């Protein structure tokens, strides 16, 4: 059992909204007892445009940042970082530059636990962040992070119908109905991400995920994670 309370926790998100989709119930559950920091590597908006010189892009990026700040206020968090790498184009950025962002955040926040994207997510930005997190936290690094878990992102993680595999959770965190409702209230700040059921990011879709993961763990509601490693470092 991993202790999630009274810990320093770093959530690494490719885009503003991923933090809620992947960890919103967990954040609701522990935000009053643990120190939670979130870093957003990409801006999450420009990938929707064919004209990358459109003046609307900066407006959308700012609106998404405002939504992330509203989410943070809802969860009473005050440690956010926005790095605004180009959405959907992390593969055009030298991975060492992404590593440096993550390493800087680790140095700053000194996390006991990191939550990051999963390798088997269909979104390439998410895959790259998994790789970058692993590179930045390898056990022989001076940046010792004891525990690393990956999270799923509805409408992305379940779509990786590839021979390499899909998200396979092995760690479940029970959440309450209140946590679930707060998760969706937080997600509602990202209004462009929500569509009617059966879209996974509808209220019913988010609830269905929580019920399914709860059923796997023999509880009513849960969020699912993949425990990559947990090391008990001797002080």
Short characterization:
With 235 residues, this protein is of the alpha/beta class.
Describe it.
By secondary structure, the protein is of the alpha/beta class. Helix content is 37%, strand content 18%. It has 6 helices and 7 strands. It has helices at 18-30, 56-74, 95-109, 124-136, 177-187, 203-217, and strands spanning 8-13, 35-42, 80-85, 113-117, 147-151, 171-174, 222-230. A 7-stranded mixed β-sheet has the order 3-2-1-4-5-7-6, sandwiched between helices. Helix 4 (124-136) links the parallel strand 4 and strand 5 (147-151). The longest helix is centred in the N-terminal third of the chain and has 19 residues, at 56-74.
What is this structure's SSE topology?
Elements: E1 8-13, H1 18-30, E2 35-42, H2 56-74, E3 80-85, H3 95-109, E4 113-117, H4 124-136, E5 147-151, E6 171-174, H5 177-187, H6 203-217, E7 222-230
Helix pairs in contact: 1-5, 3-4
Structural class of the secondary elements? alpha/beta
Count the beta strands. 7
- Give the oligomeric state: single chain
Mean pLDDT: 95
Sequence of secondary-structure elements: EHEHEHEHEEHHE
For the biggest β-sheet, the strand order reads: 3-2-1-4-5-7-6
> What level of helicity do the residues show?
25-40%
> Radius of gyration, Cα only, in angstroms?
17 Å
Per the principal axes of the C-alpha atoms, what is the gross shape?
globular
Compute the number of helices: 6
Sequence stretches where pLDDT stays below 50 over 5 or more residues: none
| Percent strand | 15-25%
Distance between the termini: 20 Å
Most strands sheet: 7 strands, mixed
